[in-house]
Design brief:
Shape: rod-shaped
Oligomer: single chain
Mean pLDDT: 79
CATH architecture of the largest domain: Roll
Distance between the termini: 103 Å
Number of helices: 11
Low-confidence stretches: 1-27, 111-129, 321-325
Largest sheet: 5 strands, antiparallel
Radius of gyration: 35 Å
CATH class of the largest domain: Alpha Beta
Strand order of the largest sheet: 1-2-4-5-3
Length: about 325
């Protein structure tokens, strides 16, 4: 039967209740955020209060109180959580100009069999033994709520770059709720606005790692930490290379200054003859070995490294005085 359209830009589509377990081969080219979402989506919280908190967290990304996401796998995860509590629900695909969005809508029990189905053929609706579950004030529900927010609207940069975790929520009230849950986990965060919508951002390395562990993305945290290690090693190597390059540049510049001073002194024979023997020895060694280090020159002269450095420094000073005079 053809699927009825509820509006010019709205298509109602029934999605399976169970989330899709993406094959690892299909995620090889996926982004880091998509791999974390694929890890979180198949998990259904075992406690009813945590399931209600997860749906509540996904609703924080919407604007009308219903879970809204651009990720189909997240919409299927919401259906699986609702069906675990025998709550009938459907997914409405909203075709927008940029990309599709999926809104999860809870249906009344009377409409579970469809408006066109005869009453005798409709299967009996499950009878709930109690009221629908609600989220509690426990820490487990805060974690589940944050899991739902990340499933619906979270994004995270790779671990080999600066830590940037963002949660694009639907209102200032939703942003305040997310910030409160993050504070319960001792995760520092900040709120900013982008294109008129609030964004809760976590920029600290420890905060991102703690959040990934709290929402159950343990493989994602391992990948994030491995990227952090790669970034730190790369930064350390770059620092050492820069330091060695700077030291080499200073050594070459000092050697050139020393050779220039020795040339000036050799052209002035009277001043050259008046140099102390130790300075003349240092000048001859530098002339013969222009690429040697101070340690090598000091070993050849039989003196200490500071003594050789002082002699060469005096040669440069005397050569400069001679040039000025």
């Amino acid at each position: 039967m053809a699927v009825p359209r509820s509006g010019p830009e709205t298509v109602r589509q029934q999605l399976p209740g169970r989330p899709v377990r993406d094959h690892p081969a299909a995620l090889r080219g996926a982004s880091f955020t998509e791999r974390i979402v694929a890890e979180l989506a198949p998990h259904v919280p075992p406690l009813p209060c945590c399931r209600a908190a997860l749906i509540e967290g996904m609703a924080l990304a919407g604007e009308g109180g219903a879970p809204v996401t651009t990720r189909r796998v997240a919409a299927r995860a919401a259906l699986a959580v609702l069906h675990a509590d025998a709550i009938p629900a459907s997914v409405e695909r909203l075709a927008t100009a940029r990309r599709h969005r999926y809104r999860v809508t809870v249906r009344p029990p009377a409409a579970a069999g469809g408006p066109d189905a005869p009453a005798a053929a409709a299967p009996p609706a499950p009878v709930a033994s109690s009221a629908p579950p609600v989220a509690s004030a426990n820490l487990c529900c805060s974690r589940s709520r944050l899991r739902g927010v990340f499933l619906a609207c979270g994004s995270l940069s790779r671990g080999d770059g600066p830590p940037q975790l963002e949660l694009l929520v639907g209102s200032e009230t939703a942003a305040a709720r997310v910030v409160a849950d993050l504070e319960r986990l001792d995760i520092p965060s900040s709120t900013l606005r982008r294109r008129g919508r609030p964004v809760v951002a976590v920029r600290s390395q420890a905060g991102v790692a703690t959040l990934l562990s709290s929402i159950g993305a343990h493989l994602g945290r391992l990948e994030f930490e491995s990227g952090r290690v790669v970034r730190e090693v790369r930064s350390g190597v770059n620092r050492r290379l820069n330091a060695e390059t700077a030291n080499l540049r200073r050594s070459v510049s000092a050697a050139l200054s020393q050779l220039e001073a020795i040339d000036r002194l050799e052209r002035d024979r009277s001043r050259w003859e008046r140099l102390p023997p130790a300075l003349r020895e240092a000048a001859v060694l530098r002339r013969r070995r222009p690429g040697d280090s101070l340690e090598m020159l000091a070993e050849a002269a039989g003196c200490s490294r500071p003594a050789m450095a002082g002699r060469l420094h005096r040669l440069v000073a005397i050569g400069g005085v001679s040039e000025e005079g």
